[in-house]
Amino acid sequence: MQKLYDEFESRNIVVIAIAQEDKDLESHGKFYKHFDPEPRFVIAADFDRKDTTSYKRTSTYLIDTKGVVRQVFPQMIHYRADWRSILNEADRVLKE
Fold it and tell me: What is the pLDDT of residues 61-88, one digit of tens each?
C-alpha cells in the first residue's frame, strides 16, 4: 500500500485502515510501530470491534463517495489482495 499510495492520492482516494485487534492505545501503538517508514494513510483503532462489527476482519472495502460498498477484497494472513488490483477496481468505479 505504501508503494502505491501516491497513485491512490492522485485519484483523490482516501485510504483508512482499521486495526480491529487492538485492545487499547498501548497495543495499537505497538502495531503502528511496525510500519517503517510511518504509514502515509490513516490507521484508526476500533478497540474490541465496537464500531466495525458489520465488516469482516482482515478485508479491504472499496466504498464510494455515497457510502456504498462497491467491492470487498478478502484478506488473510497468508494471502493479501494485490493493491494494484484494488486500484484498478477503484479506477473502474470512478469512471461510472
Answer: 888 888 888 888 877 666 777 888 888 8
Assigned C-alpha cell, 96:
461510472
Residues 6 or more apart in contact with residue 64 via CB below 8 angstroms: 70, 93
Burial-class residue 86 by CB neighbours within 10 Å (0-12, 13-18, 19+). buried
Residue 39 corresponds to which cell in the numbers above? Answer: 504509514
Full-model pTM: 0.63
* Residues 6+ away with beta carbon under 8 Å from 56: 72, 74
Domains and CATH numbers, the chain: 5-95 (3.40.30.10)
